[in-house]
Amino acid sequence: GGPRRLLLVSNSTLHGGGYLGHCQQHIQSFLGEKVKRVLFVPYALHDRDAYARTAREKFESLGYGLDSIHESCDPVEAVRKSEAIFIGGGNTFRLLKALYDNSLIQEIRKRVLEDGIPYMGSSAGTNVATVSINTTNDMPIVYPPSLQALGLVPFNINPHYLDPDVKSTHMGETREERIRQYHEEPNTPPVLGLREGAMLLVEGDKATLQGVTGARLFLRGKKPTEHEPGTDFSFLLIDSNLQN
Prior knowledge:
The protein has helices at 24-31, 48-61, 75-81, 92-101, 105-114, 124-127, 175-183, and strands at 5-9, 37-41, 65-68, 85-87, 119-122, 156-158, 191-194, 198-203, 206-211, 215-218, 225-227. By secondary structure, it is an alpha/beta fold. It has a single domain (5-236), classed as Rossmann fold (3-Layer(aba) Sandwich). The model has no long low-confidence stretch (mean pLDDT 94). The strands form two sheets. A seven-stranded mixed beta sheet has the order 3-2-4-5-1-8-9, with helices on both faces. The two termini are 31 Å apart. It is globular and about 45 Å long. It contains seven helices and eleven strands. GO terms for molecular function: dipeptidase activity; serine-type peptidase activity. It catalyses: Dipeptidase E catalyzes the hydrolysis of dipeptides Asp-|-Xaa. It does not act on peptides with N-terminal Glu, Asn or Gln, nor does it cleave isoaspartyl peptides.
């Protein structure tokens, strides 16, 4: 065992770079030399074979073998044997439904929180690491049995967080307004808006904002606050029920 270790990335591809290019050094220092193979979960996209090929190519270029869970005849056993887990982006509802359908919620929680294996998520894979997928940007194209997710951290994240465009004539809600609507409901946890290029590193009880862009933090009933890379977010790891 060991303390939980999470690398929660806002997006897989940053403008001008290739797949996971903007965070590859973070991935290498996160996984280190002990991890030899990564278990990839491609459930968020329909074409799992193509997705696994893309991920395998990237991780092999970084020196890691990659097994895709969709190629395993026993997904639960694959999680039990894994040295590290990476859940990729795509549609969050499709991803969460597949995690439930394959009985993986408790198994992944156990491997990460009790056994201490590294967990990496990007986009939808970051969404499912949190309390719930209530603050995803995706359309509910399928119906998971619950919106409750893995709960590896006691708050929610909004990946690909977008600031309001002052020049835009678009009259729909801004991302900030949508998160405020979420917080109008009782007992809703903090939401960390991760801009593209940002990621959160969690090691035990320490959480640090990394990457090239900042984040915006939303606490229920409070004004949102702006945070630069390097910010210590460890206080978010205290159970959010205490913060409401």
